[in-house]
Every structure is written in structure tokens, then in C-alpha cells.
## 1
Amino acid sequence: MPSSHGGDKPDETLDVVGIGNAIVDVFAQADDSLLDKNGLIKGTMALIDADRARALYAQMGQAVEVSGGSVANSMAGVASLGGRAAYIGKVAADQLGEVFSHDLRTVGVAFDTRPLVGGAPTARCLVMVTSDAQRTLNTFLGACIELGPNDIDEALIKRSKVTYLEGYLWDPPAAKEAFLKASRIAQKAGRKTALSLSDPFCVQRHRTEFLELVERHVDILFANEHEICALYQVERLEDAMAAVRGRCEVAAITLSDKGSVVLVGDETFAIAVEPVSRVLDTTGAGDLYAAGFLYGYARGRAPGHCGRLGAICAAEVISHYGARPECALDELVARKLRD
Amino acid sequence: MPSSHGGDKPDETLDVVGIGNAIVDVFAQADDSLLDKNGLIKGTMALIDADRARALYAQMGQAVEVSGGSVANSMAGVASLGGRAAYIGKVAADQLGEVFSHDLRTVGVAFDTRPLVGGAPTARCLVMVTSDAQRTLNTFLGACIELGPNDIDEALIKRSKVTYLEGYLWDPPAAKEAFLKASRIAQKAGRKTALSLSDPFCVQRHRTEFLELVERHVDILFANEHEICALYQVERLEDAMAAVRGRCEVAAITLSDKGSVVLVGDETFAIAVEPVSRVLDTTGAGDLYAAGFLYGYARGRAPGHCGRLGAICAAEVISHYGARPECALDELVARKLRD
């Protein structure tokens, strides 16, 4: 059983440290009329303030609370694969913050960012699930707004093979400075920086900065087809591939139920989708793909193998509700690779 | 969409007002070894203090938070049946208290008990789910300890056809006074009092008081086979039936997957179990049986019909995870009674 502060030991090399928005998800079933009445666009993520969060929550049905946050989900995945993972993100010193911290530490992810005291509450994402199984997300960033450069533990970044960041960090104002600080520390220490583009709307919000980021700071880029096309303002996958090739060491582009392609230098690795008997909930597919890929990368695996690990982890998470693995991924991978 | 304070209107008659321990459930998968290490008895509910709650939570895996509380689950059921329901219970003025309040009000249950400020946090029940689908419960009563006679809204009791209480209320010290106050108000107003025996261990803890209660205050008694046998210290169902008959107006005894028997005066009504294609999680079966029964009773239905309503509601809640209905029970009942 891991200790309550995760499995971190100060003198050991970590596989991945993730930096992201620390969020608790609030899931409820919803009718289309609720979305319409509130001007929500189905299947998208919108940022909302505290008042709007209160107003939407009051209209939602009975709900279930589950820890989320894209990079936090990925770190839970790395730990489940047997990797050494840490997380940096800002919760408040409140009950949802305790829930978030518990759920990471108990799976073995080191998480020691100081919680915010006396400010905004822990962030939450209101997830409305309509009968067509689509999810419409409304995120109140709360305490995440306060994540800043002072929260970046230099020693932690230095001893992590990869520092992994989410594009969503560009939404709260101070987090991008934290992001850049972390990336510079990693670069100077000869470590790698990875980035997920997070969401096509997030790409639209921060496109110019993301382009520069990919060019100057990012070694490993994760994006789905929509995100990479939004970044380069092209319509076809091949044009996006042409645009991103050579901009960073590795670009892994996920293609939903059609697998993924991994670009390394002049080479392109096509990764088949991992078959699943039943897709229950696609939430977390990208997060767990990144988990598998990064774990493989940190352990020196070839790009094709990294992609395969990503595909296996993504397949596990879409076969049940929720965005974090429900079985021991190290055992699952061992079984799959043996087959 | 109901208002954020439920569907209560001060001048209307209510079907049921429920009084209970207001609890948020924290579910996580667990190994048998976790139970053994902590001396937990599988399938039972134990009361724990704050320190023990912290220690157990730290050892639990990633969890899901869902509003619970036996009588609160029942009130959600009554509202879903189209009944007018209210709830009295003590949460703290904290995030889990907000979650609990939201989840009741949004389904139309009036809930206006003043939350506790500056004391213990909202109660939680740590639910460890082992691979054999058994649930082992550890309840930290938190703010529930402060529920007392002052929380009993006299007007609310007077205008409710039935006041429904849980045996678990005998665990926090002041709640029993609240219980007795409510029961006396109901009696004086010509209203009915219903009681659930809650749990065989709860019966053992408070047996003498429960016997007197049934004799003097309770009109409608809910118990399962184990609870009623524990109350009368007998081993066979028929002996318990003989012991309880005539002690209160109605005794509804649930027999798990073998249906239920309802005793009214000299008559015994046998209620068949409602068939379900798949039992996923039996949590809440008793709570929803009571919901269906009480709704029927408040609407003047015959005992056999009340039992059938209970069976239909219980069947719904065991066909999915969680202890509250996931579909509109009024529509489900209309469909079932038509078939």
C-alpha cells in the first residue's frame, strides 16, 4: 500500500512529472433542453466563473464526484504501469482538494504542491452526460488560477526524465509562467518536455503561443486530429503532419478509433487501435494514451512500442466509465504483449 | 426543473418527511487484505471516529463520492415516484454538505435543515467494495452528531402524512430526541410514524429502546429478516412475525431476493420479488422498498399494492450501481402496473 504522499523518494529518478489543472469532475445525466437553455455546445469544454458554476450546478440532476484533470489522469496511468510519477497542480485546502489529493497519492503518484488557503475553492468540471453518451464540460478553474512559478519544484523537474504539461495550463494566467519555468529547468537538465494540446478550442484560444511553444520548448507533442489541424490551420491530416514534422522530436497524433500515427524525424509509425469489446465512455482516452506513450518513452522504448502502450492504456479506460484506469495497467500490458 | 430548494410549498400536504443521518458515500474497490489488516468484518457497517476515518481513507484506493444516507435515498425515491417529500438531516456548511444538499434538492426533495457551522464536517461513509461484490461500510457521523430537537420543523411534520425515521438515528446522541419530538408531533396531529430498523447491528446496539419505540411510537415498521429476528431475539421468520404482529399498524418485512411479507392486523400479504435481468449492486434495495411502500401508503393504497410499489422501486435500484433511482420511478411504475 503506498504511503499517503505517494511513492516518491527524493533521490530517485522519476519517469514523468505532470503539471496540470487539478480538477474534480461532477457527473450528471442531462437532457438536451438543459444544454439549449444555457447556450451550451454539446461535446465541448467551456470555462466558467463561480457564479455560472453555481447556476449550472443548481440545474443539474443528482451527481457523482470523481477526481479528474487531464494530466492528473495521465499520471495515475503512469503509476499504474509501474512508472514513477509525480504531479504538480493547485487544489484548495478544502474537501474536494482532499479528495483530489487522496485519489492521486493512493495510486502512488507523488503530489506535494501546497494547497491554496483562503482563496478560491478546488476546481471542478461540471460534466453533463446526455442520452447520446456525449459529454458537455463546464470548468470552473477555482484554485488552479493560483498555480504559479513558485509551485515548480526545481529538484523534482530535474530528476524527472519527462516533464509533461497540458495546453489547458494556458487558460489560468500564472500557470503558463510555471509551465515555461518547468520547461526551462528540464531543458537545462537535459530532460525532455512533453505537451498535450488538450482541446481544439484551447488551441484556438492560444494558437500563436502554442506554435512558438512547440517550436522552442516541446520535445514530445500529443494531439488528436482536430487539435493538430487547428494548430496549423489546415483541414487534412497529411497537411498537419507535414506542418508538424521536424518541429519537435516526437509528435504523436491520435485518430480516435482509427489508431494513431507517431512522427519521429523522417519516419512515421502507424499504431493500430487496440480492440475493445465495448466502448462505454471515451473520456480519458487521450490522457491514457499519453500515459502509456510517456511511460514507454521514459523507459527507452522504440516509438512503435510507445504507441502500442498508449493504445493498450486508452483501450482500458474507454471500456468503463471514468477517466482513470480501473485495473493494474502493468499486468494488462504484460498480458497483451504476451498474446 | 425544480428550484434549488426542492419542490416544497409551505401550505401543501406532504406525503413523507424523512429524518436521517445525512451522509456522503465514498466508494472504492478494496482487497480482502485491507479489511483483514484493519479488523473490518465484511458486509457490515461500523461507526468510526475522525482519526479512524482518516486512517482508513488513506489506505483506500481512488474513490467516487456519491450522496447517500438511508432515509435520504428513500426520499429521493418518493420524489421520483411523483410524491411530495421533505428531508431533515444535518450536514456541515462545507463542500460535501453542498453536494448532499444539491443531490436531494435537485430531485425535488425539500431540504432546509440548517447546516452546522464551525463544527464537525459532513458525515461520510467509507464503502469498500471487494471483488465478491460485498460492501463493508465505515461511517464517520461528523455533523450528524449535532442533529437535535431544534432541527425538527413542527409545521413540516404536521403537514406530512408520514414521518419516516431510521434506526441509525439512535447512534448520534441528540438525534433520538429529535426523533421522539417528531414522532410526538406527528401522533398529536393524527399523522403516521414509520421506522426502518436499518441494520441488525444497529438493532443490537439499541434493542431495548427499539422495542419500546415500536410499541409506543411506530405505525409502520420496515425491517429485513435479520433485523426483525435481532429485535425479537428469535431465529425463525415466523417467530419474528408472531412477535411483531399487532405491535404496530403495519410491519413490512423484506426477504431479500425472496420478496416481502406485509403484516396488517391479522392479515399477511405476500409480495413477490420483482424480476430483474441483472443484479448489479444491492445497495439501497431496502431504502427504495420503503420509498415505494410509503408513497403508496400516503396515497391510500392497499397494503399489497404498497408492497408491489416497494418491490418495483427496489428492483430498479439494484439493477445499477448506487442507492438512488436513475430513472423516473413514476414512469417505471406506470409501465409495470400496465404490463
## 2
Amino acid sequence: MDAFDVTILGCSSATPAFGRYPTSQLVHMAGRYFLVDCGEGAQMQLRRYSIKFQRINHIFISHLHGDHFFGLMGLLSSLHLLGRTEPLHLYAEASLKEIIDVTNKHSRSVLQYPIVFHPLSYTESQVLFEDEKLTVSTVVVKHSIPCVGFIFTEKPKPRKLIKEEIEKYQVPVEKMEALKHGEDFVAADGKVIPNDVLTLPAMPSRTYAFCADTIYDEEIIPFIANADLVYHEATFMEDMRDRAKQTMHSTAKDAATIAKKAGVKKLIIGHFSARYKELGPMLAEAHTVFAETYLAEEGKKENV
Amino acid sequence: MDAFDVTILGCSSATPAFGRYPTSQLVHMAGRYFLVDCGEGAQMQLRRYSIKFQRINHIFISHLHGDHFFGLMGLLSSLHLLGRTEPLHLYAEASLKEIIDVTNKHSRSVLQYPIVFHPLSYTESQVLFEDEKLTVSTVVVKHSIPCVGFIFTEKPKPRKLIKEEIEKYQVPVEKMEALKHGEDFVAADGKVIPNDVLTLPAMPSRTYAFCADTIYDEEIIPFIANADLVYHEATFMEDMRDRAKQTMHSTAKDAATIAKKAGVKKLIIGHFSARYKELGPMLAEAHTVFAETYLAEEGKKENV
């Protein structure tokens, strides 16, 4: 099975505190490395956890609140200084380009690699990346400024051939690919051998969903339904419900409720407010709704 | 004696490495807190070393290479979120204001405190701050882009009255201030009592000099002559002299030579290139020229 994992680099909200860094995470799937958000210090966290910068070819920025992108200029600069020449794909609100351009201009920086800038839509879901293994798409979320989450989904996998049955029915090599994709086999004598005699079901396609900064919003449920792993912000606890509403953030209970209603396998909560030093009560609140909730833990690799 | 100390928050050069942060330091003198440069992660380092953000009223940015200011937006944002309303004085190249304005505009941030922006001169030395205790001035240094260092100098202190002599010569209270400033005393009988009979010499005024990023440049010597503490960059060792010249940085030997020629009491070297994991050889190189050289150590408070 292909490796598919997420390393949280930062789980703090707007103000870093208690050693917690602002939002950033690395999503890895079968040799593809994606950075999701890039809060201040993301490059230090990549170093701390011995993650090679140059493997990252795609950076997704959910929205332009500083705690989600103030580490970007430093990372772009370090990639340059470390000798990058490969193009880097950057997906963000269009105006981020002006920030980058103005900053590079005044710091007299000319990056030695091209940035391929992909402006995001904040009105409809988009497919941002697709190859033979993986699709990355967006889900528009409701926050105080335009914001999207990112959904990483494995492509449907081939069914598995049953070696003994393949031999028994003398399936020729050139027919095997069709079998893997669910077709039946017509033998030399015209007899139809049903696909499920010759193959086993494909491994399920796994999904990781990063829900960015969002108010409690059931409209995201169809996008994250049955996901293997979901990261949902839990900036506050229920005691700060008014503040959560006002700032368009979620509580731990909100995150757990969304996860439960979406039937996800596992929920990680993060984006913790600096007012919470101890996170145990936050986890306990989520557990009253959804048992498979875990606290984000910086540097820990979570399998999808 | 007033407290006067420097806490190094970052001693790495362009690319943070080996847990070393990019340039930033806190200069404290008798309750005044000044931030000198603000590389990425400066706010995390302030937190790590339990330094209260809101005490900082003046931020000096030596030049606009990213490793000296990419932590600024995050710090400005956190000051806002933590409730600051007091004005913040920011001293930097004029174009930094455009970077801040564009970034705040696109992140929809309106800071709840005023930034008083002081554009720096890169052609002549300036006094940036002055009160009854301290003067902060600039020294123009030679780097690949406009760059200044910052000199923190205590104001001349009053001479100390010798209690027994004051009583013996019956000096009236209203004359004492003049004595502290070196005047002689004329007694009721017209006899002149020389000042040095009545007072002891003032404590010397201490100086801290931050030399920023600079090529080896003897022109800075008059500005840092006899300083108590000097921070001079040592990005490279002598084995990389060509690279130092090309990038307009100094070697450890350069820094030590400047310190020796300037007759300073103590030298701290920093701004280490990411190519040096172990810094012992760098210190050894400096020691061949100037014994009172020390490696910058993040979080350590150095008395001036």
C-alpha cells in the first residue's frame, strides 16, 4: 500500500504560544509532498522534523490570515538559497502574488526557480492537482475572509487478480488490465466469467481532508464524508461559543459534531487559541461527541 | 547601576539551520526594550525566553534582507491580537512600509495601534532615539543592499558626591547638581574647592554596538571604538573568504580584527552560515586575533 501520511508542523491559531506553531502541515502520498498552509516558522519545523524542503513541489494556502502564510517568504527564500531550480506550484488567493512580488522587490531577491501561481476560487470547489495516484481538490469553507479547505483523495485502485483463477481460466496477459478495472472475461469458448470470480475488490481509496479555518458548517459534510482522516479546527471550547461565532471559528464540540455527521474514521483537532495552555479539556469536549478525536501533535506523522 | 543587556534571539544567517534562528535581538536598558532586527520566528523566541512582547516600543531593522525582517509581520500581528494600543516605533528602510501595507491589506488586518514609521538614512549616521539615559544611533555599513548598524550608548553619568566632603565644606543642596556635572565649589569665604575633592568620577557610560551585516570595513571603527560589547557578524570562516567578499559578509577573523582595532572590551560573533554545524572552529579562528570573542548563544542575556 502506498504511503499516505500527514505531519502537522503547527497547530496554534493566530498567536503562537506554548511552543505551538501557527498552521502548517505536510501531506505526503507515495513520494508526492504537499505543504498545506505555511505559518511563521514552517521552515524551522520542517528542519526540526528532518523533512527535506526540496521535495515539496506544491504549496496550498487556505486563506490570507497571517498565521497561515507568514512563513511563506522565508521558505521561498530558503528554497532559493538551497539551490532549487525546479518550478514550485503555489495555490492561493490571487493577491498573495502581490505580497510576494513587493517583498521580493524591496529585499532585492530574485528567486532562481519559477513560481507557478494558481489563484484559487472561493466560490466553487476546484480540482487543483491530479495524477495517476491522487487528486487534490478544494472545499469552500465559511470564514471571515475567503477560505478553502483541501481534500486529498487517492485515485480508485485496480481490483486484485486471483492468481489461481487467472491460471484456471487461462486469461491472456493483454486482458488483465481490463479485469483489474472490473470487466468480466469472455473465455475462448464464449463463456463469460464474472469479474468477481477472477478478482478481489480493490483496496479502498483513502481520503484526507484539511478543513482550514471555518465556522461550524454542515455544508462541508458531503466533501469530507467517510474520509479516513480529517483535520478540523477547534480554536475554542464551548465556553467561548460567542467568540467562536464572532471570529467565524469552531469549538472542539463543533469539530467533533461535523466529524460524526460525516462518518469520518478519525478526527484531528488543531488551530488552538493561545488562551488554552492545557488541551486535555478541549479533547474531552470533543470526546463527548466523537470518540475517534485526537489532538494535533506537532511533528507526529499520522497515517491516512 | 542600570541594567543594560542584550538577549540574542537568533544567530543564523540567511537560512535557519541546526535550531538557530535568523537575526533578531532584544536590547534592554533600564526598562527600555528595543528589538533589533526581526527574523522569522522572533516572536516564538521572545515567548521561549519569557520576554514580554508589549514592553517593546521600538523596532530597528538594519536592512531588508528577509532573514532580518521576515518575522516582523507575525510580531506586529501578535502585538495587535494581544491588545496593544500604544504606538510602536519602527525604524527601517522606507520601502518596508509598502510591504507592511500590502500585506495588511490582503490579510484584511487593521492594527489597533499606530505604527510610527521612521525611514532610515543609508548615507549618514543618525540619532534615532534619545532620552535622559540612552542614545541610539546608526552607523552606515557596507553590505550588498543598504544597511546600518545600531549603537546604544548610555548618556554621560553624573559624578558621585563624597558625603563627608560635602558636609565638611557645607555645600548647600542647590549647588549639588552642578558638582555632579564637574563644577568646582566656591565656599562662603570665597575659597574655591576643586570638584575632584568633593566628587568621585562618574561611572563610565556603556556602549553596545550591533554591526549588522557587513563586509570587513575599518570605517566603522570610530563608531564602535572602546565599546563594552560589540556584535559583529561572522557569516563565514577564512576558508570561505571569496564567498564572504562576494556576498559582502565577514569572516570570524574579520570580526575579531575589527574588535581588536576598535579596542572593544568584548565581541560576540553571530550570523553564522548554515554550512557550519559546529561553531568551535569559528570561535578558534576569532581567538587567534582577539581573545575576548564569544559565540552568540540564543536566549542568553549578555550584560553590556
